Amino acid sequence: MVKAIRIHKTGGPDAMVYEDVQVKPPGPGEAYIRQTAIGVNFIDVYYRSGLYKFPSLPHGIGMEAAGVVEAIGPGVTEVAFGDRVAYAGGPPGAYAEKRLIPAAQLVKLPKAVDDKVAAAIMLQGMTARYLLKETHVVKKGDTILVHAAAGGMGLWLCQWAKALGANVIGTTSSAEKAALAKKNGCKFPIIYTEEDFVARVMEITGGKGVQVVYDGVGKDTFLKSLECLAVRGHLVLFGTASGVPDPISPAVLAAKSATLTRPGLYHYIATRKDLLANAKDVFEVVKNGTVTIQKPQEYALKDAAKAHKDLAGRKTTGSIILIP
């Protein structure tokens, strides 16, 4: 038996139950992993709350972790016993000491990337990569807006976008977070609790607006994000931390010939080739210092509920990991 967090009924943070589970030997195409560090992300909150649906209940939760391969099933060629690996993706179940996972979803870790860093960078790093280089190709001289700029995703986007030559505007909730965002590539931090971020964006851009808004907040920022766009600007809604935005008419986009996208990581790493290429870029920007990773905030696996409360309460900056 191994310890894991499972959901028996969706709801608040206390819906997560720390309990013993039985893990079967790996079947065809599967690997059995002893997990050393587990990433915590807003997608976990969406599953726990019921916004995203589990295939059945009770069910494990969590989409990202790093660890060591302890066994492989028939036909597995992607990894071998003893490999250090990481992953980001379904099925949910990462909040566990050990687990089974399709071997094709695993990426071998370079020696220069330790397990705690790996658990904190896979989902956010690969998300940042596709957002900046595929969903909207950020170019030198672009001006972009990043919401929650001091959060885990925000810090990735600010640093990587700056390296691509963009001028980064970012929203934060406090002076402390604004300072952190500025230190990590955000040229123009805006404390949205103290000033109207739409007016400030227009002031910074001379009334032109930004080429792209990266919005992981959702309901609270969505309509104002549209106002921040330049003509032919692109609103990339990649998360809904504050809730799902209300529906809008396509005619709303016509005022600026704007485009709206709601992308998801899994469509960008659907093939093994795409997964490895994406992960390779993430490891490279970490190794060469393009993106500096804050020391992840650590919680014990059994304290996952507290980690969720702190994440939802915006009490954290950077990444969160659970240690089994």
UniProtKB/TrEMBL annotation:
A molecular function (GO) term: mRNA 3'-UTR AU-rich region binding
Domain Enoyl reductase (ER): 11-322
PROSITE patterns linked to this entry: QOR_ZETA_CRYSTAL
GO CC terms in record: cytosol
Keyword terms: NADP, Oxidoreductase
Name by which UniProt lists this protein: Quinone oxidoreductase
Species of origin: Phreatobacter cathodiphilus
